[in-house]
Specification:
The longest helix has 17 residues. The chain is an alpha/beta fold. It is built from 10 helices and 14 strands. The protein has one domain: Metallo-beta-lactamase, Chain A (4-Layer Sandwich). The strands form 2 sheets. Strands 1, 2, 3, 4, 5, 6, 7, 13 and 14 form a 9-stranded mixed sheet that branches. A 5-stranded mixed sheet has the order 8-9-10-11-12, with no helix packed on it. It starts with 12 loop residues before the first strand and ends with a helix.
């Protein structure tokens, strides 16, 4: 677990946990793929959640898909999410602080495992998924009604803190609305011993999205998605962000330090104790 650097600033260790996967085609994941005049072909899609451990508390960034959500969509479940949380050091039933990047089924699927957790998410995102457009087919296929109902119930219990724009949720952790993929899609900046890490979630499903301006097929605002790619490129080129962690790219784990432990090949670390010895594989 990361603690503080020599200047006294809070730094964190991030564990990237892969719990599911699927095989599909490029034309299935990229919007209007024929416009690029490239051959179609196979592509994988991995599913992650992120554990951010600091000196005083642990944060979960998203909670993955539930077994029901994954199975009904034909996803391959590599490890039961509840067990994955446990092996990553977050016991189901505990109350970590949870950052929800957006409301899709593969990002809020297991919130009910943490009924006492405090949730931080975009007000714009919550309002959209509890508003009049959530049941439209082009949006509804990416959510589960029971999971949206849980969000509404959590809000009534006072368990959700809403954000607008950009906020610091703890020393060394910032959350920013970026839009594009969903109305309130958020990205998370985390200070680690290896520099500032951008947990892009689904602002970047695949690295080539922002590298080549390839739009993902599920998009709420085309212009915002293009603008988010430009922002992330700028942040990385300027050195403001040292590492970008994608939401679904199968190469993600290979870019960072393998984790020794019960999760085996299903996890990688940024800012962990072994990073100085093994180095970042990016």
């Amino acid at each position: 677990m990361a603690e503080q650097d020599e200047l006294g600033d809070v730094v964190y260790e991030i564990t990237i946990v892969k719990y599911g996967t699927r095989s599909t085609t490029r034309s299935d994941v990229y919007l209007n793929y024929g416009l690029y005049h490239e051959d179609d072909g196979p592509i994988g899609m991995d599913y992650f959640f992120w554990v951010v451990k600091g000196p005083n508390e642990t944060f979960l960034v998203d909670t993955g898909f539930s077994r029901h959500g994954g199975e009904t969509r034909g996803r391959d479940i590599l490890i039961d999410p509840a067990e994955a949380f446990r092996l990553a050091g977050v016991e189901p039933g505990s109350a970590p602080r949870i950052i929800v990047t957006h409301g899709h089924y593969d990002h809020i699927g297991n919130l009910e495992l943490f009924p006492d957790a405090e949730i931080t998410m975009s007000r714009k995102e919550f309002d959209f998924w509890t508003g009049p457009h959530a049941d439209k087919p082009l949006f509804a296929h990416s959510v589960e009604d029971t999971e949206l109902a849980y969000l509404r119930e959590a809000e009534k219990r006072g368990k959700i803190t809403f954000l607008e724009g950009e906020v610091t949720v703890a020393p060394g952790i910032r959350v920013r609305e970026i839009g594009g993929h969903t109305p309130g899609q958020c990205i998370v900046f985390v200070e680690t011993g290896e520099g500032t890490v951008l947990l892009a979630s689904d602002a970047v499903h695949y690295y080539e999205e922002y590298e080549r301006d390839l739009l993902f097929t599920s998009v709420a605002d085309l212009v915002e998605m293009y603008d988010s790619f430009a922002l992330i490129r700028e942040l990385q080129d300027s050195g403001a962000v040292a590492h970008v962690v994608s939401g679904h790219d199968p190469s993600t784990l290979d870019r960072f330090t393998p984790v020794d432990g019960p999760l085996g090949t299903l996890a990688a670390s940024i800012g962990g104790a072994s990073a100085a010895e093994t180095g970042d594989k990016k």
